[in-house]
Amino acid sequence: MTLVGWLQIAAVLVAVLVAARPLGFYMARVVQGERTFLSPYLTRVERVFYNASGINPEKEQSWLAYTLAMLVFNGVGFLSLYALMRLQAFLPLNPQKFGGVAPDLAYNTAVSFVTNTNWQAYSGETTMSHLVQIAGLTVHNFLSAATGIALAIAMTRAFARSSVTTLGNFWVDMNRTTLYVLLPLSVLLALAFALSGVPQTLSASVDATTLEGIKQTISLGPVASQEAIKQLGTNGGGFFNANAAHPFENPNAWSNILSIWSMLLVSTALTFTFGRMVGDIRQGTVLLIAMWSLLIAAVGIAYWAETSGNPLLVQAGVNAAGGNMEGKEVRFGQAMTALYVAVTTGLSCGAVNAMHNSLTPLGGVVPLFLIQLGEILPGGTGSGLYGMLVMAIITVFIAGLMVGRTPEYLGKKIEAREMKLAMLAVLVLPLVILSFTAVSAVLPTALESLANSGPRGLTELLYAYSSAAGNNGSAFAGLNVNTPWFNTTLGITMMLGRFAYVIPVMAIAGSLAAKKKVPASPGTFPTRSPLFVSLLVGVILILGGLQYFPALALGPIVEHLLMNAGKTF
Amino acid sequence: MSKATTPPLFEAALVRQAVVDAFVKLAPGKLVRKPVMFVTGVVATLVTLLYVRDLVAHRAGLLFTGQIAAWLWFTVLFANFAEAIAEGRGKAQADALRRTRSDTPAKLLLHPDDSKDDLWEPKHALELQVGDVVLVEAGDTIPADGEVIEGIASVNESAVTGESAPVIRESGGDRSAVTGGTVVLSDWIKVRVTAAAGSSFLDRMIALVEGAERQKTPNELALSILLSGMTLIFLIAVTTLWGFAGYSGTTLSLTVLVALLVTLIPTTIGGLLSAIGIAGMDRLIRFNVVATSGRAVEAAGDVDVLLLDKTGTITYGNRLATEFIPAPGATANDVAAAALLASLADETPEGRSIVALAKGTYAQAEPVGAAKALFVPFSAQTRISGIDVDGRSIRKGAVDAVLKLVGTTIADAPRIFREAVEGISRSGGTPLAVTEGGSLLGVIHLKDVVKPDIKERFAALRSMGIKTVMVTGDNPITAAAIASEAGVDDYIAEATPQDKLAYIKAEQAKGRLIAMCGDGTNDAPALAQADVGVAMQTGTQAAREAGNMVDLDSNPTKLIEVTQIGKQLLMTRGSLTTFSIANDVAKYFAIIPALFLVTYPELAALNVMHLGNPQSAILSAVVFNALIIIALVPLALKGIAYRSVGAAALLRRNLLIYGVGGLLVPFIGIKIIDMIVIALHLA
């Protein structure tokens, strides 16, 4: 670790904060239907949608109607994306003449993009036509991100409002989020990426002659535009298989910083939106501090573990000065790789600029554990905020009684119904992650896909299901997941990780919105103090740690100990 | 804290009974009410079966499996014991109550409508119906809860209140309610039965203190859901561990997986939860307050606003006359003489103090001929009392009421009179106007003495976020003066029962929880509306039905302690939950390396406690898990220390003790147990 490295990390984080605060307040104005500087241009566009679809933007929905609208919308999205992939051979914009995508892979990919996971069991440049990339995958990069934001806004309204039955209108929230926030931001970002050297073209490839005189075909395509929303919407699905380690997706240090900045932007901004909407910005800031302090700690661990390197390689005579550089890009360096690794997994983005499978065992624990903590640090666009709010509710419930009052959060009493729903939600992740990993760990068909045996193999399995359940989408690699078993089970995992989680969360929102807001007093459990931050962090760590400690102990932790003991497998 | 008796926590007889009950409570039907303990019971059965199988098959490792099975059963038994001992303490009180109820003979009046016909037939108390009218004479035990419809009697209510001084019960007014099981000492009363056998006040009290009808309170229910959810999560974590172990080439026995599961699921709080709830109710009862539901105790902890009657709570209640101030055209002695006459029939402390002052300092003689006088009694509506004698018509009462009577207003009153009234009010006193024949005579200065320590108590409440509101019949100026002297946050002056109700509704609309106490029938709507309504035992049946707590001592000051007991209950629950969850960290460090040491010797690095061997590590964690329940029983029963500091300070303190403590204690505890286990060659 170097001071310069830390200064780079700090600079990126400060740049995020500087932009996130105004963006958050802007988003609050957008979703509350207030005038913004874009209103003169976009109000008419917005109205076209309402007129065409017959939706009354003034009519608000109950939590159930809101959730059903979200499910129907995503269901239709899933089916059309599936059809698009299956039929791509008969559709235009297919210069490489790819055949239709296999059923299990099409199913897996459709789920993956609808759920904002962007798990890719395929190589984009050799499987998907340009039409699928643009009209299918990129569109869903917008829609899945907007869905997350809409749900987070609905949850925020539950705390902001008192004694109401409605949480807003799903269609309006989707429409405004996409039009006023995601589209303009991604246009700007795509330009910035193009400026930094990311290609944006509709031609399929260029031919090059290598130094050895061999002819080489290099894939191309509309990369910059997809890159922008991939990062902004914490989707993470790369145009290329190598994702952000590919020189066309992420050519230089500048594009790397831009990637990290744009990943963190919206989720960070949403905490300010939350604070503004509930009428106490500090309530949002407290959540942000909790998210970021864990994130920064994770960056530190990854940075330290990677720069410490692998003692076995040092013994073998590898220069130890750079630390563990296996699977990393020299143009990014250790600090920016560590930051990328932590941010992309703390965020449920899943874009990668290094091979996670090449991380040292402890360095590899960081992305894995960040995903398992529920993708809340600061989490996916929207999903991070509502996930964090569920953790805050549980924290308040466990510790809130200690001040001698029944638990309340932001003036809303947390009672049996909320607890039931919150437990339903938090059960989803361990259930799917641990069950599918355990079954795969003893299932011969699944084990055939493993590139490594021993603890590393277990880590690969665990990572795949964690990544799918957390809707992260990054791969540890080393595991051939394009098999019917993995495509199917990972598809189920992604679906449950998104929708089985969010339905109870929305039910909590409905129940909280209906409650009266209790005014705060000196006797109220303090949720805007540093003490609450440490409590929240503690509960997240202990709950998450308790669930996954046995699995982690048998995977990366024992691997680390084996490595230090000089054992390989 | 009048009769808050604290018997020793573990009386020998109670403990003996609790040990028996702990086994009775193993019945699956009873255990299923506590999900965490139910799971523990199920896996304990499983391990026992394994032990029997191994015993029959002469397999190795019998000592280990046997010990694990035994300690799992101890875990359940200790939790049952905690609940049983909490119930036992209540039961002792219930038995005393029950003795008074058993089969009282009743005299059922055959013609209750005819007040001259006292014909009655003997009945058993248990046969009485609601609406029956019974005659209760000196020496009889009142057979059921009811309302006095005729007569007056002195009643010994020590069976319910513990207070042996008799109280007067009479028809009409606020002293008409009688409780079954209490004894008429003198005279007779006719009582209309208001509660059938089995649902009387005494019956409900018995059921409550026994915990027989105990239902989970809302917060307890929510907490049980959290605990069940966590149990499920750990069930998943442990079950899937079997798969991970299989991958890693380790075969885990069911016994060690069960051991891991039981140490992880929140057995500590799961085992103590009901004991904490029962003990909370019990603390209230020892404080001579009976809550009609556990929900009310919880609500008491949440209260934001206390409506306190000024009299008796904030001030001593006996306002004493200290001065007579004449209006123009009268002398102080005129006022004294008139006030003396008007107060002759006034048996209130104020009335008596006026008589005493007039006879003493003002040297007035005992008036003659008062026997022929017509007394006008005080009423809450007129707020005036007085006397008509020898053609004189003297009235005294609240200044505005008297001014209205003489047809003027305070603005039009003579300057001296006005200044006297304002001066008295400003000083916190109460002015009473005296009038004779339509002209103002003067003012009586009643002094209301604020209790000496009350201001500090209100400050403490304020730091806890509780707003205190003084309710008084005084005029606004008087009320403001006393309010500032006592340090309350708000006051309702010239309060009528309707004002109280309106105030409660307005505060509730803002999301606040209100506690109040009251005794009169006209308090009933407000008592029912309040989130915590403490009715006085001396109050009317209507008030007692409306409130959700009854104060057997009829001491309105207790409202403050009731909220503290509620808070203490919630704090105990929260602290032990935090403690229980924090405990798990150490247990992982004990068990996980032990499970996989054979496959991965390197995992010994996680054995930070340096436990002797894998079996002793697992056994020690299970033993610690069981013993911590027993160790925390006294805390669960007594409740954790309560301090009147703000929420932030309370949280910091409790988090430090139970959160950080919960992380550290098991590391030490498991290590010590491990050393003993190794020394005794138990594993």
What do you see in this structure?
The complex is a heterodimer of chains A (569) and B (683). Chain A is an all-alpha fold and 569 residues long. Chain A is built from 19 helices and four strands. Chain A has a domain at 24-35 and 43-205 and 215-252. Helix content of chain A is 64%, strand content 2%. A two-stranded antiparallel sheet of chain A has the order 1-2. A two-stranded antiparallel ribbon of chain A has the order 3-4. Chain B is of the alpha+beta class and 683 residues long. Helix content of chain B is 52%, strand content 16%. Chain B contains 23 helices and 20 strands. In chain B, the strands form four sheets. Chain B has a seven-stranded mixed β-sheet with strand order 8-20-19-18-9-16-17, with helices on both faces. The longest helix of chain B is centred in the first third of the chain and has 40 residues, at 62-101. At the A-B interface, helix 14, helix 15, helix 17 and helix 19 of A face helix 7, helix 10, helix 21 and helix 23 of B.
Q: What characteristics describe this protein?
A:
heterodimer; A: 569 residues; mainly alpha; two-stranded antiparallel ribbon; two-stranded antiparallel sheet; 64% helix; B: 683 residues; seven-stranded mixed β-sheet; 52% helix; elongated
Short description:
Chain A is built from 19 helices and 4 strands.
